[in-house]
Amino acid sequence: MELRQLEYFLAVAEEASFTKAAARVFVTQPCVSAQIRRLERELGQDLLDRSGRRVELTEVGAAVLPHVRAALSSMKEIRGAVDDVTGLVRGQVTVGSVASSLSRQLPRVVAGFSERYPSVEISLTEGSTEQLTEAVRSGRVDVAIVGVGSDPPAGLDVVMLTDEPLICAVGHEHPLAGAGTVPAEELEKHSLICLPEGSALRAAADAAWKAAGIAPRVAFEAGAPGVLVELAARGLGVAVLPEQYVRARPQALHPVEIAGPKLRAGLGLAQRAGSRLNPAAGAFHSHARALLG
Predict the structure, then answer these.
(1) Which of 115, 126, 215, 230, CA to CA, is 20 to 30 A from 191?
(2) Ranges for the HTH lysR-type domain (predicted)?
(3) Is residue 97 a contact partner of residue 144, using CB atoms and an 8 Å limit?
(4) How far apart are CA 252 and CA 293, in angstroms?
């Protein structure tokens, strides 16, 4: 009994067609048929009913199928364990990232990883925290840098990379620029500038306003903190930003202390909860965590 025979049998069972199975495993249809016949002779039983328009499992084939899946899964785990031990990582990894200060470091991270593991193909994608968390949960993205508010995203295992306070800021000509600490209710009198819904920063801000019993009007949304900085600097409203962005632009922004709600948000390296990353993705996770953590 050979592994390729089990792989071909599984392909035919799932595709219900020798032709489609052959295309899936990248061999000819006669090759698939011959190998499965050899497997059936070895077992002494027919596994497939070939009499109809669709290939169907026989009773014996249906009983064998779960064991075939388990055997192939075990072999995949064995190969992964060998790769982990020997460092012969290969394959593919899909990495996602929100627009952030860390995302600007991704080229350095990717370059270092590619130098160490030249046989691994890396795909990069960008999106909102909401989009990326769903992509990780569904398996379309292996590892992603996402925003993390007070509650970590459901269905994900997250390693925190940054955790910092959020503060309000205005341009130097804004009425609040000369104020000291202002009550939270004061925000309802001004336009708010925030990241869009679905981002961790926005979720943290909305939770803080709800806790304070206020409902500020969000007049401007932008997907990148740098755009929020420019909008606030031009006097268009009160921006909610990670503190580092405000401290880095003292010539453009004035921080505003809000009494009551305390806002925090961070960035984390996320993977699907309870699942083992493939060797390539696992190696990238470790590499990125070491450089960005």
Answers:
(1) 126
(2) 1-58
(3) yes
(4) 29
- Fold matches, 3-86 and 91-147+270-292: no
Q: In terms of Cα–Cα distance, which of 149, 151, 162 is closest to 195? A: 149
**Which DSSP category does 100 fall into?**
S
Architecture of domain 91-147+270-292 in this structure: 3-Layer(aba) Sandwich (3.40)
- Parallel, antiparallel, or unpaired: how do β-strands 156-171 and 253-259 relate? antiparallel
Sorting pLDDT into bands at 50, 70 and 90, what band is 101?
Answer: low
Name, in order, each residue with C-beta under 8 angstroms of 265's C-beta and a sequence gap of 6 or more. 147, 148, 149, 163, 164, 166, 200, 201, 203, 204, 242
Q: What is the mean pLDDT of residues 103-122?
A: 88
Task: Judge residue 94's burial from the number of C-beta atoms within 10 Å of its C-beta, 0-12 exposed, 13-18 middle, 19 or more buried.
Answer: buried
CATH code of the domain occupying 3-86: 1.10.10.10
Do 162 and 267 form a contact (C-beta atoms < 8 A)?
Answer: yes
Q: Exposure of 60 by Cβ count < 10 A (0-12 exposed, 13-18 middle, 19+ buried)? A: middle
Residue 90 near residue 84 (C-beta atoms within 8 A)? no
Alpha-carbon distance of 34 to 141, in angstroms, equals 37
pTM of the entire structure?
0.57
pLDDT tens sequence across 186-204: 899 999 999 888 777 787 7
Please list, in sequence order, all residues whose beta carbon lies within 8 angstroms of the beta carbon of residue 213, skipping any fewer than 6 positions away: none
The amino acid at residue 282 is G
Q: Name the pairing type of β-strands 143-148 and 91-97.
A: parallel
